[in-house]
Design goal:
single chain, 120 residues, mainly alpha, 64% helix, elongated
Length: 120
């Protein structure tokens, strides 16, 4: 009986550690010169797969824009700088990369793998 109770307690401690690693997630705060007040813009995704798809799509748009020999083909966009527009999208991609989330997944993986190795 005591062995089962100890195992349950260890599992509970592992889960509590996982929750601490996941919450709260870090957010990036940027301070731009001359603008002390920044706004945070958020959007919702259903899961990490959707976030990965959005990031991938943004990167593909940049690749396609870089591959095109002309500036933007649409007459409505002839005033836009191709380089500046691509740089803006790449900055957006960089800001939505889930760095803290990925780091917490690495920590969770190490925690669980080390626990499994101790049990073997």
């Amino acid at each position: 009986m005591k062995t089962k109770s100890k195992k349950h307690k260890k599992d509970k401690e592992t889960l509590e550690t996982v929750f601490r690693l996941l919450n709260p997630r870090e957010r990036k705060y940027y301070r731009r010169e001359g603008n002390p007040v920044m706004q945070e813009v958020t959007f919702e995704v259903t899961d990490n797969g959707e976030l990965r798809y959005i990031i991938s799509s943004l990167l593909r748009v940049c690749i396609l824009a870089l591959d095109s020999e002309n500036d933007f083909a649409s007459p409505r966009l002839n005033h836009c700088s191709k380089e500046l527009t691509i740089a803006t999208v790449l900055e957006l991609v960089d800001s939505i990369l889930p760095d803290a989330q990925l780091a917490s997944y690495d920590a969770i993986e190490k925690l669980i793998l080390s626990k499994n190795q101790k049990q073997v």
